[in-house]
Each structure stands twice: as C-alpha cells, then as structure tokens.
C-alpha cells in the first residue's frame, strides 16, 4: 500500500489527477471505476481542466460508477447520475455509451445487479478504481456489518451515512435510505485502487485503517489492506491521526 500525504485538498486533487492521467495515457481504453461524493470533485475539476487545456482524451475510456441511491429518478439533482454528469461527464469527451452508473430504479433488482457485474467482467474488469471513504469505513455503500457482499446489491444506508449525506439535501428526511452499490468483489478485483480522503472528519477512520492493520467487515475499507496495488492520497488533516 502506497500512502501519499499532500499539504491540502488542492494538492491531493492534482496528485490524484496525475495518477488517472498517467493511466489514460498508458491505455486509452482504460476501464475506470468512479466514485461520487465531495472527495473526488477537485480531482474531476482538474481532469476537466486537463481535457480542455491539455487535450487529455476520454474518447475511448469506459467508466463504471460505484453506486446510486435507490428509487431516485435519474435526473434528480441529488442522484449520482446527475452528480456525475454535472461534475465530470458533460465537460469531457467521453462517449455516452461508455458510461455505466447503477440504475436506481431497476425493474428486476436481482437480474440488474447481476448484469452490472457481468458488464464489468465483459470489459475485463476495472483497471483503476477511484474510491472515497465513509467516516465509518464504508467504501462504495458497503457499510460496516457482520458480512460483506461480493456482488452489486441493494443495501440499507447506516444512520451515520444518512447523516453525512444530508448536507446535499434540504432535510435529512429526504435522504434515501437505500442504495444500489457495487460489492467488494468488483472493487477488490480492480487492478489498481486509488483511495482519496481529505479533511478532519476522515482522520479517525484513516488512523484506524493504517495503524491498526486489522481486517474487519466492521471496517469495509480494511479489506483494501489485502489488495496488492492500492494508493491512498491524504491531505494533512485526514492524515493527522495516522502520523
Ligand atoms: C460515493 C461512495 C461513497 C463515498 C463516501 C465518502 O460514490 O461510494 O463511499 O466515497 O461516502 O463521501 P465524501 O467524499 O462525500 O466524504
């Protein structure tokens, strides 16, 4: 596991963009796993800048997003579809056919989840997976529990996640209670993983993850300790309980 500590969020975002850019320049048809949330927004901004000013080319890149709220329309301002178009896709030259985001309103949930995993497999798996981390250690929406699922599935969001995500909604009551999320299988099969964490609110979980060296389903991010190619980029605040 490679740990990089940058001074602040802006430097963290640039570093993450450097790594993503390098992968795209090495393999123009990169299979890129993407996350939503506040953490990668700066990285997406920097990728957009590099696309517009430096010709970073997304034409052949395929993306798979980690998750989506369940029961929320695609065009809802808080849907992860909306988020991804708003923060990245509509500003770059990605082919819309190459964008994959879990459908928050599948007709047949079981079949849909299976097909999402099969689509990833058909592409040969994810080359580079971008991850954020929840304050409780969740990755994607794999929440702390006595068991974790391998495949894409429907999950109940924990109180802590609902509270953390309420900042994007008018009230906490509006935050969906369920989500569709990739499981640990596709994430752990990614050839490379890049986890980003910034700010004080992530210091505790980052300290636990990097100092305890314990793998537990109650800290889903701890499974990453078993992956052969993980890079973690932190800012000084999120690294403060690790250092
Ligand atoms: C989002 C996702 C989540 C977030 C996590 C951190 O697609 O998979 O696991 O990465 O909740 O969210 P932020 O970045 O808002 O702190």
General description of the model:
By secondary structure, the chain is an alpha/beta fold. It has a single domain, classed as Rossmann fold, CATH 3.40.50. The protein contains seven helices and ten strands. The strands form two sheets. A seven-stranded parallel beta sheet has the order 1-10-9-6-2-3-5, with helices on one face. A three-stranded antiparallel beta sheet has the order 4-8-7, covered by helices on one side. Strand 2, helix 2 (41-54) and strand 3 (62-65) form a beta-alpha-beta unit. Helix 1 packs across helix 2 (41-54). The longest helix has 18 residues, at 9-26. The protein is globular and about 40 Å long. The protein starts with a strand and ends in an 8-residue tail after the last strand. The relative contact order is 0.18. The protein binds fructose -6-phosphate. Residues 35-39, 66-67, 132-134, 138-140 line the site of fructose -6-phosphate. Keywords: Carbohydrate metabolism, Hydrolase. Pathway: Amino-sugar metabolism; N-acetylneuraminate degradation; D-fructose 6-phosphate from N-acetylneuraminate: step 5/5. Catalyzes the reversible isomerization-deamination of glucosamine 6-phosphate (GlcN6P) to form fructose 6-phosphate (Fru6P) and ammonium ion. GO terms for molecular function: glucosamine-6-phosphate deaminase activity; identical protein binding.
Short description:
The chain has a single domain, classed as Rossmann fold. It is built from seven helices and ten strands. The chain has helices at 9-26, 41-54, 80-87, 109-122, 159-165, 184-189, 203-212, and strands at residues 2-6, 31-34, 62-65, 67-69, 99-100, 128-131, 153-156, 178-181, 192-197, 230-235.
